[in-house]
Amino acid sequence: MKYLVLIPDGMADEKIASLNNKTPMEYAFKPTMDELAKRSLVGTVSNVPDGMVPESDTANMAILSFDPKIYSKGRSPLEAFSMGLKMTDTQVAYRCNIVTLSDGGEYDEKIMLDHSADEITTAEADELIKALDEKLGNDILRFYTGVSYRHCILWENGNESYSFNRPHDILGQCIKEYLPSGDDGKVFYDLMRASWDILEHHPVNEARRARGLRPANSIWLWSPGKKPALPSFKDKWGLDGTVISAVDLIKGIGLCAGMQSVDVEGATGNYKTNYNGKANAAIDAFKSGADYVYVHVEGPDECGHRAETENKVKAIELIDSKILAPVYEYLKSCGEDFKIMILPDHPTPVRIRTHTIDPVPFMIYSSREDNEGVSLFSEESAKATGLYIKNGYTLMDSLIEK
């Protein structure tokens, strides 16, 4: 038995007036997904436990069958792991976004314009992160380059319990009330404030302005955590697993669980990614002996954060046509039984531009049995089946045949 798990990150949404009062899932032309849904087990699942923040680390950990309440230590340590950083037991990792804040006025009065600095390229970001490390790094803390706007700080004996605000939650708002504060927050505030002086007129940002792009003119710290540890995925399920994602966080979860991770050239973590490359990587993983392939696609989530309704629809359509369709055809050609599970990790509604804790639709297709599914795979149709799984980390029990 082979297993494909496809995660269109943040795909679930609300009905949108400009889409004829349909959700992006309902509006998108996704023939392969919808055809499989007619013969699939369909329902809804809560990947984020009550009381936890609806972030991708928590949700994807649950989908991979690890209870977030037991194993979640924040997303930053997982990202550090995927970047090849060897954390000590006394270090704390922090996610370090490079963001776009508004020009003019005092730092505290600026507006959060973009949590991704127009999805800055990794090459440009690397120059900025190196500049920050040169000016602000020391024996206690160091800056490390990740992908695009997503980077990492490792801090010796850092505060792992400080509660930060997430930059994608405050888009379009004045940052003053969301900045680190109080005695515990001062060291983080000072670092973020100092980054502005280094980045605002850095040559990389001046060149971006000249091209009509937003500058990456400040860092924003969040999601601290200590060295991660997960049980072995193979020991738990008896399967050789492979993770395919452009996002360090998802790679980190897989690597911590002892799975293989495949990097796809041109995979960006946004709407304009290498969809064909991800499909080919999944097929190659199966050919190389993988029993379980986990394909994560960040595009719908980023479109939700950026309030790009049309691009979110297009991202779903491209996932269907360029990833799901060819991998499905390959699996059919192999002469071996297989299952396909498709679900977003969490909703990212265009209206609010951030994640919610609401249940998400899921579908599980089996090549050797037909279920009475739904005619259109969507939030509404999945809910209408009445099948609801409260704990996302148990969903894998419905997929894997032991």
SSE topology:
Blueprint: E1 2-8, H1 24-27, H2 31-37, E2 41-45, H3 56-63, H4 68-71, H5 75-82, E3 91-101, E4 112-114, H6 122-136, E5 141-147, E6 150-156, H7 182-199, H8 203-210, E7 218-225, H9 233-237, E8 241-244, H10 248-256, E9 260-262, H11 275-287, E10 292-297, H12 299-305, H13 309-333, E11 338-342, E12 360-366, H14 379-384, E13 388-389, H15 396-399
Parallel strand pairs: 1-10, 1-11, 2-13, 8-9, 8-10
Antiparallel strand pairs: 2-12, 3-4, 3-6, 3-7, 5-6, 11-12
Helix pairs in contact: 5-10, 6-7, 11-13, 12-13
Written description of the protein model:
It is a single chain. The strands form two sheets. The protein has an eight-stranded mixed β-sheet, with helices on both faces. Strands 3, 4, 5, 6 and 7 form a five-stranded antiparallel β-sheet that branches. It contains 15 helices and 13 strands. It folds into two domains: 2-73 and 230-399, Alkaline Phosphatase, subunit A (3-Layer(aba) Sandwich); 91-225, no CATH class. Helix 5 (75-82) crosses helix 10, helix 6 (122-136) packs across helix 7 (182-199) and helix 12 packs antiparallel against helix 13 (309-333). The protein is α/β, with parallel strands linked by helices and 402 residues long. The longest helix has 25 residues, at 309-333.
